[in-house]
Amino acid sequence: MNNATRFFSRAAGTMQESAIRKMGALGARGTDIISFAPGFPAPDVFAWAEFRDIAQSVLDGSDATVLQYGPTRGYRPLVEALPEILAGRGIRATPEQVIVTTGSQQALDLCARVFVDPGDVVLVELPTYTGAITAFRNTQARLVGVRQDRDGIDLEDLDRTLLAERAAGRRIAFLYVVPNFQNPTGLLVSLEKRARLLQWASTRDVLIVEDDPYGALHFTDAASASDTRPIKVDDTEGRVVYLSSFSKTVAPGFRVAWIAAAEPLVAKIEVAKQAADLCTGGLDQRIVYDVWKRGVLAARVPMLREYYQAKRRVMEAALEREMNSLVTWPEPRGGFFLWAFFGDAIDTDAMLEKAVGHGVVYVAGSAFFVDGRRSGFARLSFSAPSHQRIEEGIRRLAVAVREHTAATTSAPAPG
Ligand SMILES: Cc1ncc(COP(=O)(O)O)c(C=O)c1O
To answer: What Rg, from alpha-carbon coordinates, does the chain have?
Structure first.
């Protein structure tokens, strides 16, 4: 049909495809493309045998509710387990203060629906997670970026930005932050800054949405569990909406995550979720619950830390070896991402074509900046490829960077 766009709402007209999904598709297209683009966990560390065993017993037919619609709040045993899981991270919560979501991605979408009116401001880090950008934009939020330094969000810039937006008569819906091994920068916010941030939010009466899918995955050579203490731990006023997920530690295919927040907020989020999907998949929730209940998750997390830490080392060593002076990055102290900077003279969007030509992809930094800037940054995910593919991918990238640099520096000056 020609001109099908006439059927779209105004909001749909502004929806944008995720840059990461686009890059992921590119990675899948070629037979020999090494992809550093998607932040996928590695399938070789999924607990396949345990999943099989649990699925078999859950599907033995003795419990018909397994394949029935379930409560919007979530599978009751999982809802009741979440306070214990949260307590492991230092967060106190009751079952009334939690809700299961279909991935944290749905949690972001629900936060946008419940807290944002069109034109409201959502404050985000520069750069920030693309999935959050798209979820918030879908409700026509005005996304306003705040600078980060090596220690995460810049509190002076944050306050300046908030005051300017309020002075312009705009409502601040919330501040969105990823303090643990941020996507895309891998940055870890210091405990001191977390405390100051919460104090600031209290003084300025701002709601914080704290997204924490990577908190359990610190690298023991660079951080400890206490460094990842969520902001929510110290929230005595109910101003932090805490999101976390089983995607990175169990498997993202199960689509099971959760929100912990003050009771009235969770109750409203539940109403919004009723319209979104009625409930998160019952089979998925039961499998994830059993993985936790049987102690499989607790037993595996230390192995996952070592596993991803080793991959980070391989990527860092390859970068040093292949293009030492051409690239810098903040050390990832956990999580899945290395935030590479190739210098101000490089535009990683423009360089992407060269990279693909040499059989490697990354996500250009521009995908993560809400101010629309292009830059010399690229997000390199080290989580999924094997050691050997990481080494080969960085070798290819080095060739692309050298070629691109030579082409841009030898181009005739305009005018
Ligand atoms: C910061 C952040 N938030 C949320 C998500 C979504 O995770 P889920 O699989 O739980 O939807 C991701 C996934 O990459 C992420 O990096």
So the answer is: 22
Read off the pLDDT of residues 348-374 as tens digits, 9 standing for 90 and up.
999 999 999 999 999 999 999 999 899
* Backbone phi and psi for residue 137, each to the nearest 5 degrees, phi listed first: -65, -30
| Atom nearest to 248 CA in ligand 1 | 9
Helix, strand and coil percent figures for the chain, each rounded to 5: 50, 15, 35
Q: Coil, helix or strand for 243?
A: strand
Of 46, 105, 109, 178, the residue with max ligand 1 atoms within 8 A of its CB, to mutate for a pocket test, comes to 105
pTM of the complete model? 0.95
Q: Specify the residue for token string 């101010």.
A: 371
Atom from ligand 1 closest to the CA of residue 246: 10
Numbers of helices and strands, H then E, in the chain: 13, 14
Contact 383, 184 (CB under 8 A): no
Give pLDDT < 50 ranges for the chain. Answer: 415
Model pLDDT, residue 408: 84
Read off the amino acid at residue 30: G
Angle between helices 296-323 and 387-410 (to 10 degrees): 40
Which pLDDT value is given to residue 23? 64
Task: Report d(CA 153, CA 84) in Å as an integer.
Answer: 30
CA of 106 to the centre of ligand 1 (A): 9
265 C-alpha vs ligand 1 centroid, how far in Å?
21
Q: What is the pLDDT of residues 8-63, one digit of tens each?
A: 888 888 787 776 666 666 655 556 999 999 999 999 999 999 999 999 999 999 99
3-class DSSP state of 161: helix
- Phi first, then psi, for residue 52 (nearest 5°) are -60, -50
Which of 311, 310, 313, 341 is CA-nearest to residue 327? Answer: 341
